[in-house]
Each structure stands twice: as structure tokens, then as C-alpha cells.
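User: Round two. Same drill as before: sequence, then structure, for each protein.

Assistant: Same drill it is. First protein:
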Amino acid sequence: MTVSGRVRDWVAAVWDRFSASDPGLLRLMAGLRTVGAIALTLFALALLDTPVNHLVAGAMAAMAATFAISERRVSGQAITLALGWPTALAAMTLGAVLNGDRIAGDVFFVVLIAGAVYARRFGDRGTALGVIGFQVYFISLFVRARPAGLWSLFVTLSVAFACAAFVRFAVVPATPEGALVRLRRAFRARLAQVVDTQRELVDIEPERLEKGVAQLRRDTARLHECALMIQGRLEDGTRDEAAAALVQRRIADAEIAAERLGVLLLKARSYEGADTLTLHLPDVALAASSTPVRREDETTRLLRRDLGSLHLLITRLAPEDRGAGVAVLRNRLLSYRDEDNLPRASLAVQDVFRGIGELARAVLGLRLAFDGPQDESDDTPETTRSREEFEAEDASMSATREEPEAEEEPKGLNRPTTRAAFQVAVGSTLAIVGGEFLSAQRWYWAVLTCWVVFLNTTSTGEILVKGYRRLIGTVAGVVAGVLLAGLVGHHTWTAFALALLCVFGMFFTAPLSYALMSFFVTAMLGLLYTLLNTYSLAVLVLRIEETALGASCGIIAAFLVLPVRTHHHTDQQLREVLTRLREVASAAVDQLSGGTAGDLLDLSRELDTALDDLRRSTRPLTHPITPLRVRRRTARYLVGLLETCAYHARALAATAELVPYSKRIAADPRLKRAGERIERNLGVLIAHLGDERAEGEVESGASIAAMLESGSTEVIRPGTVTFRVLRHLQRLDEGVAGLARPLCVPVARGDRPAERHVA
């Protein structure tokens, strides 16, 4: 290979890793869009010979007009941006007029904050307009706007909104179609990373096995995260509902096949206790064997080669990567779906080759869903069979899908936005009073912190953790601000350039770390103070004090005003996950046993969404600073066990959807009986979460396979689809029974439940 070819491959590999770390390049695009809007605004205002304080106001307005809008469709973005402009003008006018009246200004600021939080109930547009109104009013305080300078500020705001619109719609467009295309590429990159890590596990030394499994766990979790992001954008980014359902099905197939291959490989690599829990529970210890997958060098070489071929097949998912070589690899890997083509090896190793064949089939399905029909001239009979199965699945998509029933929303003070509005109003009032004791000029920093800690939080624990992280980031940002201000001096455009870098860092790191985002915000403020000739070390120290005060006021309000305790919120989310899990498992088992076909895709998606919400709500319990160590371990165990249950439920749903039209998978009425215990146990768990005095016990007993084989002469052979279904049912049954002990639910057979720490 030439030097240029190596460089090209290296750049492609680096870009794939970057794409995998930033699914869909959403963070990169958000950062570039915001920086572009600010830079264009500064350039336009400089041509108008605008004073420095108005340059700062324009830059901050452009930032607000860009990051506040989160709607996915371009038309919705345009409408919100158009409505945001008069909202900004009104906020600036009121800010300039009320700045001279302390009491009236403070009262209006509290009302504005409460209204901005309450506006979240009206969706993305209400949230965006509330954020724009608050941020522009804050800008009026920051630059000390006065009625005499309003017309100049109106021009500044208009230029900022025009530049934000130009960058959003012409330079760095935010289209759902483009985001979905980039997310697909990210899914391919993350899928390739999972297979690459699995390939390394073949020859990894026993002492390094735990480290390898930890990496596989991270890669599998990132793959699932990307799949969820794709599911959230399918309806807006695809041409119709059928196309969205098709892509969703293919993504789910690939994710399940990849996770299953990892489990099978671990079982072949470590014969003692490796299971799906290994990929979901960080504290699971492996009993590693002292040898590679097998002593037979030929089998090991074949496995290593085929995993490499699978990795190559995934990385060649792009439409331009076609050819006979790729077809040969695909055909060879798909041949492992036929029992006669499996190598002579142990049952565990043969299962790995079956898993490779299933993942190769899922990769073929991704290519067909993304790029349409392919050249079939090099197909083998097994590849032709796989294509026919996909065509049958596609035909089933034409069936009418039922619209999900709208859930009844809470009313009055039980509505989250109403509760948050009252809380933030009380917290902001405390922040204003306390902030003015600290500084009569810069009290609004405390109010800003109080406002921010209430954004995207629902419980007191989340607010506590967010306030703590903001304070840590602010302290570090003050140190950086001192250093940057000393380097910049009075060089205006150098300060603006560094501020733009801070803005990019702020938006690029926001989804990853709130502390990092706060660091960049504070460092940027140090530069802005330098531009306004108001910089001093005392000002930045005051920034820390105001931040600590604002976070404290927010926490106090969250604890005293209509509080939502973390464990209550977690219980609610946990009940939702268990309810969704029961719906998916029941519908899948019913279809596998010959019942009516249902929309399992949507049910699986709702389960994933509920589980993702639970992960977020348990973050305060699993945060490193929490003093409740036992509760942290229990919360992590619960989430890991639920992730395992969700994986097996999704796998059952994916298999059940093949029953109506597959020649290989037939309904088995005996499965109905096997699923009854799972459904009953989930019902007991849900009842006890709602009322600890509820009656009922979680049942455990004979294995699912034993239940099916009792009274039947048919032997269920390993490697068959029925055997795989039973394995998923068995693991799901064990996982549901395992939830009883940490949730303090009675278990039949006299098992004594442990003390309850979560829920």
C-alpha cells in the first residue's frame, strides 16, 4: 500500500472513532453553528462601527438565538426563530426600562423566570421562546441597557438574529434528514468498534480479560445510545412511516445481534458464569479460563479471521463500497446460518459462529434499508434466502399501524412545569435578595445559576448534583479566566477569538459534562469582562460566590416548595420501566405462541425510552459524591439487571416479528404457558412499588425449558430458533425474579428479601 493510501486509511479510522464518540456529529454541528452565528454577528456589527458593549450584547444574543432552538424540522425552526425576534426586542425593552427601578425590575425578573420555566409545557417552541426571553433580559442587565440606547440595541439584536438564521439555514443547516444520515454513519462506526473489541477478546490474556470486557461493555452501551438517538429522529428524518419502521427494525436487529455475539464469545472464552449480566453490571467478576477460545489453532485462526471479515463488512456499509470481494466475505459469513457449514468445535464455539452469521445477516439488512436493492449476481443460496426473508419482512410493513393512545397528563400542581415554575420563582427570589447583599451590580449571576439548575431536572437529587457540578466548573473557569485575561490584555479581537473557542468548547462538551460546560462559560465571561473593561480578580471571585448562592437557593427551593424526592421519582420511573417490560414480554410471547400480531417495534422503543429515563433519574443516587454507598450499589445493580431484561425482551420481540412470514420460525403454543410466570411476577413487582403492603410473591421454580418439555416427547436441540427463544425467556425469567430482592418483594420458597434501598 502506498503512503497516501496508509494516510487515507489512518484518517478514515480516526474519523470513524470521532464519529462514534459524537453520534451524528450533533455536538460538532451545534458548536460550529453557534460559533458561526457569533462570528458572523461580530463581523457584521464591526462593519457598522458598533461599540464594544453592543458587540458583546450581539454575540450573546446570537448565541441565545442559536442554542435555544431545538426543533428538528426546518419549518419549525424558522417559525420559532421568527417569533423569537419580537420576544427578544420586548425583553430588551423591558430590561432597559426596568433597570432604573430596582423593585419593579426584580419582580418582573422573577415573573419572567417562572413564565419561561412554565413555557416548557408547550414543547420545544415554548421552551425556546422562554429561554430567549430570559437570556435577552439577562443581556440587558449584563450590558446595563438604558432607554436612550434602545434603538442601537434593537439593531444589534436584529443583526444577531439575522446572522443566526443565515448560519442555521445556509451555512450549517440543522435538517432531520442530514442528522439521521450522520447518525447512521455513527451507528456503523460504533458497530465496527464493538466487533473490533470482540475480536480482541479471542486472544486476550486471562489477566487482561476484565479490562477487555469493560471495554466491550462501554462499546455496547454506546451502540445502544446511538440506536436510541436514531429512533428519536426516524419520524422526522425519513420519507414516510413505513421507511422509519424499516430502519428501526434493521437497527434493532443489528444491535441485538451484536450484543448476542459478545455474550456468546464471552461464554466460549470464559466458561464459568459469563452471561448477559456481564455486559450490563460493571461489578460482575469473570472466572477466566487460562487458554484462548480453544486450543485448536485452526479454529482460533478461523474465528479471528471471520471476526475481521465481519468488521470489514461493517466498515464497507457505504454505498460506494461495493464489489465481488465484499460479496465473497458476506456470503461466507452468512453461510454459518446453515448448521452444515459450522466448523467442528465445541458447542460454545459453534454458537459464536452462528452469532457471526446472524450479525452478518443484520449488516445485510442495514445495507438494504439504507441503500435499497443491491447487485445479486454473486449471491449464494444462503444469501438469497436472507434477502427473501427481508423482502417478506418489508411486505409486512404495509400493514396499518395503530396510533398509540395519548396518555393523560398530570394537572394543576402535579404538572412538572407548574411545579418547577413555583420552585424557580421562590429560588430566584431568594437569589435576588442574597445576590444584592453580595453585589448591587452583579446580583443577577446568582439568579442565572438558580435558573440553570432547574433546566432539564425533575428531582431534588438532580438539582443538587447539577448545582454541585456548576460550582466545580465555575471555580476551575475562574482560574482559566484569570490566565486568559492576563494574556489578552486590551486586544479586543484576540479576546473575541478566545471567547469563540470557549463557546465551541461549551457546546461540544455540554452533553458530556455539565462541569466542563460551566468551566468554558466562566472562562468566556472572564474574557467578556475584559472587553467591557470591568475585569478584576474580585469580579471573578464574586462570580464564584454568586454561583454558590444561586445553586444553594435552587436546592433550598427544590427541597421546600412542592418537592419531588429522588426516591419517589425513581420509583415512578421504575414502575414505568416494569410496565413497559411486561407489555413487550407479554406481546412477544403471545405472538411466538401463535397469538395476534402486534406492533412490537413501538413497544420496544417505549421500553428503551423508559429505561433511559430511569438511568437519568438514578444519576443522583449513583453519583460519586453520594454518601449512601449501599444505595448507590443497589441502584447500579437494579439498572444493570433491567438492562439485561430489556435486552432479552427486545430479542424476543425481534424473533416474534418473524413468526408471521418466516419459513424457519414457527409459533409454539407451549410458549404461552412459559410467559405467564414472567408476566405474573412483573405484575407483583409493579404492585409492590405502588403499595408496599400489596399482597403477592415473586415465583421461581423450574426452568422455562423444563416447563415446556414436561409432558412432551419433543427434544429442543441447541442451535435452533426455539432453543434461542427459550434461552431469552429463561434469562428474562431469572432477571425478573432477581429484581425482587433489592426491591424488598417477597419471594416464594421462603427466600428472605434484603433491606430495600431503592424505590
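Second protein:
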Amino acid sequence: MSSPAVLSRRDFTVGGLLLAAGLAAGACGGPAGPPAADRTLRIGQYWPPTSLDPAKAGGESQFFLQPAYDPLIYRAADGSYQPRLATAWRYLGTGNTAFELTLRSGVTFSDGTPLTAEGLKTSIEHFRRSAGQAAAFLAPIATMTTPEPLVLRLTLDQPHPLLPTLFTQDFLAGDVISPAGAAAPADLATRTSGAGPYVLLPGETVANDHYTYGPSPKYWNPAGRFYDKITVKVLPNENTALAALKTGQVDVVAGSYAIADGAKAAGFAVAASPAIVMGLQLNDRAGTLSPPLADVRVRQALNFAVDRAKITSALLGEYGIPVDQPSAPGEDGYSAQPFYTHDPGRARQLLADAGHAGGFDLPVVIPSTPAFPGDLAQAIASDLKQIGVTLRIAAKEPATANTALTQYPASSMGWGVLPAYFMGRGLWLKEAIGMNPFHSSDPELERLDRQAAAADAATRPALDKQIVRRVVELGWFLPVCLSPGLLFYRDTVGVDPVPGKPFPSVAAWHPVDRA
């Protein structure tokens, strides 16, 4: 969280990561907020929701979805998977091509519809039709059958090793939508149709400004609901958000390193979860627009030229982690031994060996807002200049930048951290959706991916590490740093983050009495 991110796949959630700079949830005070008797949780969030329909939303919508939608499987704060709307799940046989979910009995959606396997099938079909971020990860499902009223069985036309992960709150597909809601998809954009502890209150909500949630009288586990009301206020200016936290208008703010020092100085708790790998994508690997990029030695030279530690420290301070790979500490694919050290001499030699000793110009498109991608591109440009490569930066409105990827050989990189299986389908396999605009292909990557997809849980981590290593060796990307998502909050709120793990669901936050 999926803090959310900056680009089109922003904050897609979120994975189990090791955090730099100590994930702190200290018992700090902060200015007094509302009285303890006020059982309202007030949250400030930078982005409005793309949609209140989980099938069309992204990570930026998580704070708006988690109160109203219980997931099938709950990813707890410690990273473990726990029963929620599903009480059991398992792969059938070997090869990860058949999967079964057993649902909790007695669950009712907020609209009064009971939870059944047939209804879950309808929800999954809605996700697949909606072509949102989860749709690509549901694509391998070939058939869905209901051998019992509360049992859904999936058969797949290709291996899928991470269905339990996909059906947690982190990946949206686990947010089951009622059959009535799925039957009226246009209405889902502005109302909730989940089986969670809360329901959106339209009369107390103003789209793109604030969203108010009250208790769902149908909720199956009222003891797991900790507030009488939750409000999420859209605060696109971080300084305004920090001011709202200081004055007690909100209890929790999602923000960035830009206000971290101010929040800490004011006595608020600070929790961090690294969320986004930032850098550049070297998309034109066949040299169609920039012939030098067709040579792997050139792409590797660019990676050796960048001083990741210096840039990360300058731009993110204690909250960033230098990375030369698309994975992150704590992920199965991550390698603690860097492949690219900062070595300008080696970079120059590689360029010379490839026939580009005099350097070359490299056009790159980046989003014009927010400021960080531009700051990062300028820092990279400064290092590349030392080896004779001139970065020609074109800053465009974010939506335009995202649709211009085939017009520039390189682009800004901002990926929500995911397991290798998910990253392959969005980033580096030949038919990857979204971030492989020239449909680059590598036979070794494709082979390793097929092998890992069918592997059991004990075998797959080693294969994931080989996959990520191959991506790094190919030099298709120029990652620089892992940028965190941050929460700043009062000591009256129990967020209960766990170091090295994604944030707990909003629905799990609870009041803390200050005795």
C-alpha cells in the first residue's frame, strides 16, 4: 500500500518488506486530539479513490475500501495469513493449477445478501470483466465450480502460485463484492457493497473531499469493529495534512518523507513501510529509438554509473533504501549482494567496448507531478553525465507520460513492490501488461517464470531469486531507491505496525486509552 504510489500502478500494494530506518511506532504524545469518548477515527489521505469499486481501484483506494470490504484471507500485521471470509483454502494436487476456497457460514453483505460460493464466483467474474489491476492476475482461471454452497473450486489454464496472496486485502481481488453490487457495477463507483465492518454513508460523504463510514448492521463479527465511525479526508497538500494532524482535525495522516521530520518533531508516531522501487525503465531494449540501448553492456554501464547510496541519502534521508534490483529486502527474489556497485570507470569501459566511448543522448519521459520523479531523474542525469551520457528529460502530465512510453526509449520507474510472479506479469514478461511497452522478451526469463509458477512453496524462493538476478543482469531497468510509504499518527490510535511488514488494514486500527 500500497502507499501508495506515484504512477499508474501506484501502491498496488504492497508486499512484505524490510524497512530502513526502523519502523517506529513509539509511544509518543503529540498535541491533544478529540476526547477519548469520541469513537471516530479520522484519517488524512493524499489521493482520492480512483473508484470505490475494488475491481477498478488501485492501492491509492485502500483506505477507502478496507473499512467496507472484508477480504477472503486476511494478511495480518506480522505477515501471516488468517481466515476471514474464507475459513480454509488449499491447492489441489501439484503444479498450482487447481485451488479451493471454503467460505465462512452466516456472513451477510451490507445489502443483506448472504455470502455463498456462487456469489463469490460472481464477484471474481466482475473483477475479470473490469480489467482493473487485479484482472491480469485472475486471468489464469479457466473454470469456477461450486461443489458445495460454501466451496468454490478454481481450475487454471496455467500455474498460479500466489492465489492466497491475491485474495488478501493487499491485492483487492479478495474484497468480495455482493452479487447485487456486481449486478450494478456503475453504482459501485460511489457506494460500497461489501461484507466488512462498515458501510459508506452517502449523506455524510462528498466525493473527492471526504468519505464517511458507519457500522454495518449486518457485519458477522461486531467484536472486530473498533470505531463508531471512520472518516477519510482527502488532503492533497502534505503541509496542510500535517497541520490538520497537529490541530486534531485528523488522527492519522498518510504522507511522505517531506513531512516526516515535522511530524516527528511535533511528537507524533511515525510508521514506515517501503512501498515503491524508484528509478528509470530502459524500455527500448532492441534499440528502436535509441540504438545504444540494444547492447546489454550499455544498459549495464548506465547502472554502474549511478551512485545509489548518495542519491538515496540526499533525496530520502533515513527513510530510503538504495536498491539495484526490482525486489526489496524481505522478498523471496531479493539478493543481499548487489550486482551493480558505483563504478564509473567500469561504466566507461563498458561503453567503450560497446562502441560508445563518446557517450550518447538518452531521452526519458517522466511525470511532471509529484516532484520526486523529477528530482530523482536530475540526480541520475548528474551521474550519467560523468560517463558522457546526456539524459534528455521530458516532463509531462502524469496521464500523458504513462501513455507515451513507446515514444521514448526510457521512462520514470515507480513500482509498488510485489512478489516476482506478479512483477513478471506487469513488468518483464513478453506479454506483461502496462510496463513492457516494447514487449521485450528473454527466453531465460520466460523459462524461469514457468518453472517458478508451477513450483511448490519450498522450491519457489530460489527460483524467484534467479528471476530477479536475470532481470538485473539484463539491465532492462535502472532502479535506484526504495521509497517508503509513511503514516503519522496520534498516540490515541493503535496502528500496531510490525517492522519489516506492510501496514495493518485500516479496519484493524483501534483506540488506545491514555490512562
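The longest strand covers residues 269-281.

User: Perfect.
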